[in-house]
Specification:
single chain; 8 helices; about 375 residues; Aminopeptidase; two-stranded antiparallel sheet
Length: about 375
C-alpha cells in the first residue's frame, strides 16, 4: 500500500532543503555584493608559517635598526605589497623614511671604593624595561671615562601599503617589524629570531592585506602599516602620527598586532587572544564582541588599558591622538627577547584562527552602516 504520509513528509523535507539552499544563496549574494566576487578566506597557516620562517631566519639578522636585516625586511614587505597590488603610501613609494640619530658609547663601568670594577652588562646592568621598585644612594668614586663616538644618522622606514575604499576614512592595521638583532655583533652565529616578537604580527598583517585585497567596494580605505623602531621606544609609530600630513580625523580606528602567536601561563588553553582597548568607542567595542560571538575557533579576552602593556606598544601613539585603538596580544612568555623565540614553538593552527578572528572584526567594520 502506498504510504501517503511518508511521501508527504519527504516532500516537506525537500521543500525545507530547497528553502535553506535559497537562503544560503541569498546570503552569499549579499556578501558578494558587499565585497566583490571573491569570498574565500586567504588567511592560511602555511603562508603564516612561511612568512615567519623567513623573517626570523638568520639571514634577517634579528631585524635590528642598524643591520642589513632591517633593509631586507623592508624589501620583503614591499615585495609582498606589490604582489597584492596594494597602493604605495605616497609618490615616493611604500617607504615612509626618516632618520634616527645613533650615538655609540665606550665601555661603561663603575669602580667601587675597594677598587672592584663593575662592568656594564656583566656585574651591573641598566635595563629600560625594568621597573624601579626602590632606590638607594651611595657615593660614586669613579664612573669610568666612557666616550661618545661622533653621532651618525641612520635611515629607517615604516613600510606602508593602502587598499582604497569608497571613503577617505582609514582603518589602520599596524605591526612592528624590527627586533633586537645579534646577541653579539662580533659573533654571527647567535641572534634574536623574534618569531613571536614580532614576526607573528607582521605575518598576520600581510595575510590580512591579502584577505582584503580581494574585495571590491570596501566602505573604508585600509592602511597596512609595518612600523620600525618599536623596540627603541615606539619610534616609527610616533613619527607616523606626528607627521604634518597625518590627520587623526581620517582614522576610524587602529588595530595593532604584537606578539600574537604564543600563549602565556595565565590561560588554561590557547584558544584566546587578548583584546586590550582604550575604551574610546562603544561602537567599536560592540562590533568586536559581535564578531567574537560568531567565530567558534578562538575567543577574545577583553581588557581595558589597566596594565602598562598598552603604553609599551605602537597602539599607544594612535590612542594619544584620540583614535579608538585596540592592541591584539597573546601574552608574554619565557622566550620574550631571548634567542629562543623561534618559530618551532608556534602552533600555526592557533595563529591562523587568531588572525581570522581579527579579520571577522574588520569585515564587520567594513559592513557597518
Amino acid at each position: 500500500m502506498l504510504n501517503i504520509s511518508a511521501i508527504f513528509a519527504a516532500q516537506i523535507d525537500v521543500q525545507m532543503r530547497l528553502k535553506k539552499i535559497i537562503l544560503l544563496t541569498l546570503l552569499f549574494g549579499i556578501f558578494v555584493h558587499s565585497y566583490g566576487q571573491k569570498t574565500g578566506s586567504k588567511i592560511d597557516k602555511e603562508d603564516l608559517s612561511a612568512f615567519i620562517k623567513t623573517l626570523s631566519s638568520i639571514q634577517f639578522e634579528g631585524r635590528a635598526l642598524d643591520n642589513n636585516g632591517h633593509i631586507k625586511t623592508q624589501e620583503f614587505i614591499v615585495k609582498r605589497y606589490m604582489e597584492l597590488q596594494l597602493e604605495p603610501f605616497s609618490s615616493d613609494g611604500y617607504l615612509e623614511k626618516f632618520y634616527l640619530n645613533q650615538t655609540s658609547r665606550g665601555d661603561l663601568y663603575l669602580i667601587t671604593p675597594n677598587n672592584r670594577t663593575l662592568s656594564n652588562n656583566d656585574s651591573v646592568m641598566i635595563n629600560r624595561e625594568m621597573k624601579q621598585i626602590s632606590e638607594t644612594e651611595n657615593e660614586i668614586v669613579f664612573g669610568g671615562y666612557g666616550s661618545e663616538d661622533e653621532d651618525r644618522k641612520v635611515e629607517v622606514a615604516n613600510v606602508v601599503g593602502l587598499i582604497k575604499g569608497e571613503s577617505e576614512k582609514l582603518i589602520v592595521i599596524s605591526a612592528h617589524y624590527d627586533h633586537v638583532g645579534w646577541l653579539d655583533k662580533e659573533d654571527t652565529t647567535n641572534y634574536y629570531p623574534g618569531a613571536d616578537d614580532n614576526a607573528s604580527g607582521v605575518a598576520a598583517l600581510l595575510e590580512l592585506a591579502e584577505e582584503f585585497s580581494q574585495y571590491k567596494n570596501l566602505k573604508y580605505s585600509m592602511m597596512f602599516l609595518a612600523t620600525t623602531g618599536e623596540e627603541g621606544g615606539l619610534l616609527g609609530s610616533s613619527y607616523h602620527v606626528n607627521h604634518p600630513d597625518f590627520d587623526p580625523e581620517r582614522v576610524v580606528c587602529n588595530f595593532n598586532l604584537d606578539m600574537i602567536s604564543r600563549c602565556d601561563a595565565q590561560q588554561d588553553d590557547c584558544f584566546y587572544l587578548y583584546c586590550i582597548s582604550d575604551e574610546r568607542s562603544q561602537w567599536l567595542d560592540s562590533l568586536v564582541r559581535e564578531a567574537d560571538k560568531i567565530f567558534p575557533h578562538c575567543s577574545f579576552i577583553y581588557s581595558s588599558n589597566d596594565t602598562d602593556i598598552f603604553s609599551r606598544t605602537d597602539t599607544y601613539n594612535f590612542s594619544k591622538k584620540g583614535i579608538p585603538s585596540i592592541l591584539f596580544f597573546a601574552g608574554f612568555h619565557d622566550d620574550y627577547h631571548q634567542i629562543t623565540d623561534t618559530m618551532e614553538k608556534i602552533d600555526f593552527d592557533i595563529l591562523a584562527n587568531r588572525v581570522k578572528l581579527i579579520g571577522e572584526v574588520l569585515k564587520m567594520l567594513q559592513n557597518d552602516q
